[in-house]
Amino acid sequence: MKLSTSSALLAAASFPALVAACHGDPHVARQVHHARQAPPASSAPAPASSGSSVPSAASGAPPASGVSAPASSTPVPTFTYSLLSTNPTAVPLSSINSAAPSSATRPLDSTATPGATPSFLPGAPPLPNAALLLPSNYPALDKPPPTDSPEVAQWKQDVANSGVTIPDIAPTVLGGCPANAAAAADTSRCWWTCGGCTRDTDVTECPTRMEWGLTYDDGPSFYTSDLLNYLDQQNLKSTFFVVGSRVISFPNILQTQYMGQHQIAAHTWSHPSLTTLSNDEIIAELGWSKKVIKDVLGVTPNMMRPPFGDIDDRVRAISKAMGLTPVMWTRISPLATFDTDDFNIHGGLTSAPQVLQNWENILGNATKLDSGFIVLEHDLFQQSVEIATGYILPDAIAHEPSFSIKPVIACLNKPLSDAYIETNDNTTNPPPVSGTGSAALSIPSQTNEVSGGSPTLSSSATGSAGTKGADSNSAAPVFGAAGSVAFGASIIALAGLTVFSM
Ligand SMILES: [Zn+2]
């Protein structure tokens, strides 16, 4: 079973209108959620009002692909990035925008064979037959799963039996930090969204300098195959944080990623802001994403990334109880999160040159760290994949001194087999719920009290850049009021045509 040419073209033709009809609110959420990437600390300071205009600080090689934005709007942003290399077959940067017509999707070069043995993963079961996946056996796509199902009842019991204490932290409400002033000020809950607080048990970086833990979120999608083909050409492996609903839509692509020795990790079922959910709802989101991955691959991931990075100690505890280690992206200051903002090209909320400027700023900061780093990128939309394969990855590959680009599990110096519950031998990567190893999570018992102080949070000492710490809420994210339920509904509709109709 694979995408036929005709259905792929049909999908490509139908994609833009449906996406355009569905994507508004989540994109708005993303736009304001992520602080823009600040230029490196040693660069000349950026204008205070925006990260979109950065004074020239070029002192190295002349730009390979410098770009200035067209003077069609005010103020005119200027960009000073310079790329060491671009892909000769890259889509022109000027064509990577929200108005770009959808390109024909590329069928997978090969599809995995049911029953194939993942020989690279000692102890892994044979690959299931994705054609047998029945969407009717799963919750509705892109909606929070019901909490009264037998499956969720079992997972709730598992959490209760885990021995992990779930802190009594009230859910937040949509609207981000301004709508949650008390929660934002409550440093004890360690809410990443409002201040960037992390715990030692969060993976926020790679330990070794110049190592890049490559990650892509929100797939699989129509364009994941383009990314996979490029990664194959370059012999690169990545971690993919996949949404359960997308796995239902594209099980073959997930199998290809897995059999290609990329790391598969969980990114919930319907991509909500987890801190806004009840305990049972969080369990349902994580449980169904684990289950559909297990059903398609035969193995269950033991790492997760919270959508929007929205995690606090309650979400951490539930994740731990469900055997999942949180993986964030590197953040060294309120204005220097390692977020390319690539997701927002599709919705027209940022531009391709701005994303490349963000990328160069990330590079400038990354090369100054004593540790490695993790960057937020996505493979849901065509534009994100085009800028990754055409520009960001070629530039990174050409970097001197070179980066070591690898999946998160590998940058943590662990074998790929440690990334799945069934194949983890629990020696180098003790499961978080065991409490016997370094992965044990220490969550302080607490009440949901308001500290009353300034809304300043301290990040945990996971970074070595020395710049983590005090935050202001000036760059606080604000969630779109509608949340992210409609996030991928359009893809689902199309996926029904392209995947399950044959
Ligand atoms: Zn996401």
UniProtKB/TrEMBL annotation:
The UniProt transmembrane annotation reads 478-500
- One Pfam family, short name please? Polysacc_deac_1
Which Gene3D superfamilies does UniProt cross-reference here?
A: Glycoside hydrolase/deacetylase (3.20.20.370)
Task: Give the main EC class.
Answer: hydrolase
Is-annotated flag, keyword Ribonucleoprotein? no
Name the predominant localization.
membrane
Biased composition (Low complexity) is annotated at 38-72, 451-469
Look up the signal peptide feature and give its range: 1-24
Q: Which GO terms describe its biological process?
A: cell wall organization; chitin catabolic process; fungal-type cell wall biogenesis; polysaccharide catabolic process
**Where is the protein localized?**
Cell membrane; Secreted, Cell wall
Protein EC: 3.5.1.41
Q: Which molecular function GO terms apply here?
A: chitin deacetylase activity; metal ion binding
Annotated Gene Ontology cellular component terms: plasma membrane; side of membrane
Cofactor requirements of the protein: Co(2+)
- Per the record, where are the segments of Polar residues compositional bias? 97-116, 435-450
Q: What does the record list as coiled-coil region(s)?
A: none
Q: How does it sit in the membrane?
A: Lipid-anchor; GPI-anchor
- Residues in domain NodB homology? 210-404
Q: Which reaction does it catalyse?
A: [(1->4)-N-acetyl-beta-D-glucosaminyl](n) + n H2O = chitosan + n acetate
This protein's record includes keyword Transmembrane = yes
Q: Which UniProt keywords apply?
A: Carbohydrate metabolism, Cell membrane, Cell wall, Cell wall biogenesis/degradation, Chitin degradation, Cobalt, Glycoprotein, GPI-anchor, Hydrolase, Lipoprotein, Membrane, Metal-binding, Polysaccharide degradation, Secreted, Signal, Transmembrane, Transmembrane helix
Region described as Disordered: spans on this chain: 29-72, 97-124, 422-469
Q: What protein family is recorded?
A: Belongs to the polysaccharide deacetylase family.
- PANTHER family with a match to the protein in the record: CHITIN DEACETYLASE 1-RELATED, GLYCOSYL TRANSFERASE-RELATED
Protein's UniProt name: chitin deacetylase
The species this protein belongs to is: Crucibulum laeve
